[in-house]
Amino acid sequence: MIKIYFCCHGNICRSTMCQSVFQHMIDTLGLSDQFEIDSFATSTEEIGNPPHRGTVNKLREVGIPLLPHRAKQITWSDYVRADYVIGMDTWNMRNLQRMLKGDPDGKVYKLLNFAGSDRDIADPWYTGNFDETYDDVIEGCEGLLKYLRKERKI
């Protein structure tokens, strides 16, 4: 079982979108039994809150089922269980490095790196642009899937 944990600041916009998008991708390919997908926050600001209505609306618009979710902060025990901890932007990456003891096992990645880019996925909580975030999430998740097919032979 490959454990992939997506992380953003509040765990209500980008990481929950990634969680639903990637789960939908692997479900469509019939690979659900090979993965555990979850999402987490680096902050405590939104703990317990459901996904942002912009994320909910965008996923509904494109026909991707929203997974039931409440925001939660990543912990060291989550890191220990994970195979991949994937941040959305440079700020998340700094926070994850700090929170996860410098990433001693090399599990922390930036999502768009899998698509050959060092760009950040802009936080739609601030930008209001859930369409742009969705496009970046798709690009990153497709890159991640391609990477896993090559590296993990799925």
Short characterization:
It contains six helices and four strands; from the N terminus they run E-H-E-H-H-E-H-E-H-H.
Report on the structure:
This protein has 154 residues and is of the alpha/beta class. The protein has helices at 14-28, 53-62, 76-81, 90-99, 124-127, 130-151; strands spanning 2-8, 35-41, 84-87, 108-110. Strand 3 (84-87), helix 4 (90-99) and strand 4 (108-110) form a beta-alpha-beta unit. Helix 1 (14-28) crosses helix 6. The protein is globular, with a radius of gyration of 14 Å.
For the largest beta-sheet, the strand count, sense and barrel status come to: 4 strands, parallel
- Beta-strand segment tally: 4
The H-level CATH homologous superfamily, spelled out, is: Response regulator
What is the total domain count? Answer: 1
Terminal CA distance: 11 Å
- Tell me the radius of gyration: 14 Å
Mean pLDDT: 97
N-to-C SSE string, H for helix and E for strand: EHEHHEHEHH
Backbone structural class:
alpha/beta
